[in-house]
Every structure is written in structure tokens, then in C-alpha cells.
Amino acid sequence: MPQPAPARILLADDHALVRRGVRLILESEPDLTVVAEADNGAEAVAQARAHRPDLAILDIAMPRLTGLQAARELSRTEPDLRILILTMYDNEQYFFEALGAGASGYVLKSVADRDLVEACRATMRGEPFLYPGAVNALVRTYLDLAREGRALPARAITDREEEILKLVAEGHTSQEIADLLVISPKTVERHRANLLQKLGLKDRLELTRYAIRVGLIEP
Description:
Layout: E1 7-12, H1 16-27, E2 32-38, H2 41-51, E3 55-59, H3 67-77, E4 82-87, H4 92-100, E5 105-108, H5 112-124, E6 129-130, H6 132-148, H7 159-169, H8 174-181, H9 185-199, H10 204-213
Parallel strand pairs: 1-2, 1-3, 3-4, 4-5, 5-6
Organism: Streptomyces shenzhenensis
Domain HTH luxR-type: 150-215
InterPro entries: CheY-like_superfamily (IPR011006), NreC/VraR/RcsB-like_REC (IPR058245), Sig_transdc_resp-reg_C-effctor (IPR016032), Sig_transdc_resp-reg_receiver (IPR001789), Tscrpt_reg_LuxR_C (IPR000792), WalR-like (IPR039420)
């Protein structure tokens, strides 16, 4: 009986060394193959459209677009693509945001050699992959919300505002952001003013600190 074709994987991480290590883990398995790589979130979206992989493995902290932003975009435009988030952060907030962004699982880089292959296979079977700490967080949060009769909290800012916040924090000018996102500088300024007002912040420095705090950029 012929073997099924290996799952085709897009791997996105801004560190070449990490990509090489992850690629070695994946390509030692007969049922997994890496067909494309990217070193930022925007490139990951472009590569996914170009290569139509079965599975995208996205690092959370990347330039241009984070893994979460890329996941949201790909969930919208490539609904058949399965997504795994790869991260060094054992952080409940990111975990829930990853699920909300359309990811099927969340793998810690520190145990990627142990968990990643299993996570890929689970995701390709249509099953979620949750590392043990995430399961505990999920159950604890669900119980807390159920006990208090609350819904999950809404995000404070829109996807577009988050995209602009990240680019501002990375040091891009309004004109550069306008060019990257193909919008007018005036629109960028309007979004920036909305961000300051919504988040109760004064200036670019405070926006940058906020972006670091919520994991949009690395300090």
C-alpha cells in the first residue's frame, strides 16, 4: 500500500539557527517535510500563499507581523491551513490569544525536540495540541470564568491597530508604515491617535513599552 505524502510545512522564525534546528527535527520524520521558510510574519503570509503548505509553524515574536498576527491573517485567507505557534514564552495570555488567532496548538521552544513532532501530527489529524501547563491554564481559566459567570475578555485594540502599534514600536515612521501597509500616512496617524487614547498612553515611548509588555516586540 503506498505511503501518504508527507505533510508540507512552512516554518517561520526570525532566528536562522532556530529554523535550522527545527527543520532538522521535522525532516528526520518520514511523514513531515519543510517546503518553505520565512524570517518575519509578513513573509510567512506571503510564503503560505505561494507554497500552499498543509501546516504553518509560526514563532510568536517576529518582525513586521508577530506569529499571532500572521496566524489571524492566514486563518482568514487560508482556512484549510493548520497552524502551530512556537514560542519561548510559557504565558497563559499568549496561549489563549494563539487559540483565538486560529492556531491548533502551542509548543514551547525549550521542549520542541520532545513535543514538536507530536504536535505536528496531532494538528494534521485535526486535534488540538496543548502542552501540560497550557491544559492547566485552560481548565483554571474556564473554571474561574464559569464560577464568576463572565465571558472571555475582549481585546482592547483592533487587528489593524495592533499591526500599527508593532511597527511604531519597531521605530518605523508614519510614512514607512503607510508604505508597508499600503495606506495613507494620515490613516496611520489616525490609528496612532486612537491607540494613545484607547490605551491611555502619552507618546511613542509609552507605546513601545506597552508593545514590549504585551509581547508584540522583544525588548
